[in-house]
Amino acid sequence: MVVFLYVIAFLVHFVKPQSTPYLSLTVSAKWNNIEITYRNFSNYSPGDIIFLTDHDPVGIPSSPLEEYRVEGEQGYKRTHVHYSYSYPTIVGMTSGCHKIWALYVTSVGEIIYKTCLKNYPTWMNDMLPNLGNLSLRSFIIPGTHDSGSYRENQAMKNMYPLNYYITQDDNILGQLIHGARYLDIRPAYYEDSKDKWYVNHDFVIQQPLTVVMDQVIQFVKETKEVVIFGLKEFPVGFSNFSRHTQLVEFMESYFGDYIVRSNGFSYWSMTLNEIVSHPKARIILAYDKESIFYEYRLMLFPGVFQHWGNKRTWPALEAYLRKVQRSSIFPNSDMAELTPSAWDVLTNPHGGLSQMADDVNLRLSNLYENELLREANIISVDFIRGTRIVELAVKANEKRFNIQ
Ligand SMILES: *[C@@H]1O[C@H](CO)[C@@H](O)[C@H](O)[C@H]1NC(C)=O
Ligand SMILES: *[C@@H]1O[C@H](CO)[C@@H](O)[C@H](O)[C@H]1NC(C)=O
Ligand SMILES: *[C@@H]1O[C@H](CO)[C@@H](O)[C@H](O)[C@H]1NC(C)=O
User: How many Å lie between the centroid of ligand 1 and the Cα of residue 40?
Assistant: First the structure.
């Protein structure tokens, strides 16, 4: 009997799934501090330290930006290290590290994990050899909610009432370099304004449309990645239906050969290989207005369906995301962010969208990591560098199809 129990104990010990340690860096939304998430350090002992540095460290750093005493196998820490977004975005179009590195060092001075802030500017092309025969519906695709709602002056996102409109820290180029491939664009038209075409958040102008389009062109030109340019809502200036026609024609002349054109049948069932067989065309114009799509069906794609819960609190958002039906054969996006009510916007109890994002972004990352990632298609978030969504999506895409 005793021998039997030993055998059981032995089996349980070794059959236990391998627990891979994991350390990840994110950037908080409100004050842009570096955050550390660590998991599965099962050999943790008191005295283990995580160091942050501003360069790729060789050995144990003598003057780190900050050091943090690890408090268990897993944990989370918002540090005092500040991340500054740089404009123009100069982090480069190659995958890899920039600005901040992290090192896990055990109490006996052994370095057991190193990571950094990462960018994923070429993740789709990196997967082409193995996954090129799949359509975009088969991938997990990071996206940004209200992608044009950023200011290159970071301080503005915390000023009332703009703090209820700005949803991103990175400009469009920065979002794409970080790994987002779905952009949520709300075009607006103002007859009497200089640029006429804008990207709005509701009734508030965010960027001239051409500023946003230029960055998408620059990105696809340099990386050849595929970008879904999702047009929807059309909040201002579209009461005259012919405005849609003008918009489509404007985009056609501006994006030109960069527009992915379907043959009029395949659309979202086009494989990645089919899309990239064209030398330039990488921008998918997903137009959320059926009659316009039919009118221009050789250059537009049907819109991306958005699962938007309109939730103000984490428990409500979490419950909503768990219940979303993602079985559609068409691309569909979880809108994984909180939405303030009109009263919230008037009375400012939440300190704005950046604070709301800090409240949910890491919980969202955990929810997708533990439960929802495999069934998700597009996942759109606020302040994307405050989530681990890109890292999780890229890894899951690789793993889903067993490539390394
Ligand atoms: C942590 O370990 C568990 C098994 O112990 C595993 O299921 C999980 O995927 C690991 N998490 C990460 C992020 O590696
Ligand atoms: C993709 O499809 C083409 C044409 O059917 C085939 O030749 C190729 O082997 C496929 N690639 C992979 C990785 O399955
Ligand atoms: C709509 O716009 C078109 C073109 O700008 C114009 O010719 C037409 O008169 C407008 N229709 C209405 C009802 O305003």
Answer: 6
CA–CA distances in Å: residue 221 to residues 89, 175, 286: 16, 16, 19
- Which residues of the chain are in CATH 3.20.20.190 domains? 123-400
Mutate which of 191, 240, 249 for ligand 3 pocket (most atoms within 8 A of beta carbon): 240
pTM metric for this prediction: 0.93
Instruction: Kindly tell me if the per-residue pLDDT of 404 is higher than 50.
Output: no
> Each residue of 368-377: b (16+ CB within 10 Å) or e?
bbeebbeebb
Ligand 1 centroid from CA 239, angstroms: 52
Q: What is the reported pLDDT for 87?
A: 67
**DSSP alpha helix (H) spans, 144-228:** 172-178, 209-223
Of all protein residues, whose CA lies closest to atom 3 belonging to ligand 3? 242
Cis amide linkage into residue 21, ω under 30° from 0: no
Cis preceding-peptide flag for 61 (omega within 30 of 0): no
Q: How far is it, in rounded angstroms, from Cα 348 to Cα 369?
A: 31
Ligand 3: which atom is nearest the Cα of residue 241? 1
Any atom of ligand 2 within 6 Å of the Cβ of 133? yes
Q: What is the mean pLDDT of residues 151-163?
A: 94
Class of domain 19-118: mainly beta
Q: Residue 238 CA to chain centroid, in angstroms? A: 29
Q: Name the CATH topology of 123-400.
A: TIM Barrel (3.20.20)
